[in-house]
Amino acid sequence: MVEAKHRRMCSLFIVVILLMSIHNCHCTQSDIDCLKSLQQSLDDPNNSLASWKFQNNSEGYICNFVGVECWHPNENRILNIRLSSMGLQGPFPIGLAKCTSMTGLDLSDNQLSGPLPTDISHYVGVLTALDLSKNKFTGELSDDLKNCVYLNVLKLDGNQLTGEIPSGIGQLRRLKTFSVAGNKLTGNIPPFANPQPPENFANNEGLCGSPLAKCNSKKQTRVIDSRALGVFLFIFLLFVIVLML
C-alpha cells in the first residue's frame, strides 16, 4: 500500500512538472511574439532595433536585444522594455498585451502618435512603471487607466493629450508619480491618494484645482477686470461730459 501511494505521489509530481514546463513554454513564446509584434508595428528609421533578430531559438536569446531586460538571462521572460530616445514612430503598440510577464515599459522621447487605447489596461494592466512621455499622443485619457492597479509610475508629459483627467486615476493606491505636464488637458484635477507636485500638471492651459490654482480664480479675475474696466469707462465718459458743459 505504501508503495502504491509512493507511485501516485511520483506520478502527481511528474504531472505538476509537465504542467509547469508547458506554462513556461507558453509564457516565453508569448513574450517572443510580443517583441515581434512590437517591431512590426513601429517604424524604425534609425534602425535602433537592428539587434532584434528572431532566427535564434536558444533560451534567453531575446535578453540580448537592445532595450530588453529579462527576469533571468537564460530565460525568455521579459521584465522591462526600455526604448527611450530611439526615434521610433507609429501608434501605441497593441502587441504589448502578449508581454504577460513585463513590469516596466519606457517608450519616452520618441515620435509615437495617435490616441491611447480606451482599453489600455488590457495591454499594460500588470505594469508597475509606464513612461510614454515626450511623444505625440493625442486624444483623451481613458477611465480604464483606473484598472492599472499595480502602477507606481505613470508619465504622460510632453504629449498632445486633451480632455479631463479621469477621477479613477487619482484613486490608484500604488501610484507615487503621475505626470501630465505639457499637454492640452482641461478641467479640475481630481484628488490623488498620493498627492502630486504642481510641476507634474504644469503647462496645461485649461487645467485647474489643487495643486494648481483654483478652478474659479481665473473666472473671478476676468469678472473683476471687466468690472474695473466698466467703472473706468463710466468715470471717463462722465469726465468728458463735464468738460463739454
Kindly describe this structure.
- By secondary structure, the chain is α/β, with parallel strands linked by helices.
- The protein folds into two domains: 2-213, Ribonuclease Inhibitor (Leucine-rich repeat, LRR (right-handed beta-alpha superhelix), Alpha-Beta Horseshoe); 215-245.
- 31% of the residues lie in helices and 18% in strands.
- The chain contains four helices and twelve strands; from the N terminus they run αβββββαββββαβββα.
- It has helices spanning 2-41, 121-124, 167-170, 217-244; strands at 68-70, 78-82, 89-90, 104-106, 111-115, 129-131, 136-140, 153-155, 160-163, 177-179, 184-188, 206-208.
- A six-stranded mixed beta sheet has the order 1-2-4-6-8-10, with no helix packed on it. A six-stranded parallel beta sheet has the order 3-5-7-9-11-12, with no helix packed on it.
- Strand 1 (68-70) and strand 2 (78-82) form a beta hairpin.
- The longest helix has 40 residues, at 2-41.
- Its main location: membrane.
- It holds the Pfam family LRR_1.
Key features?
4 helices; Leucine-rich repeat, LRR (right-handed beta-alpha superhelix); 245 residues; alpha/beta; Leucine-rich repeat-containing N-terminal plant-type domain-containing protein; 6-stranded mixed sheet; single chain; 31% helix; 6-stranded parallel sheet; 2 domains; glycoprotein
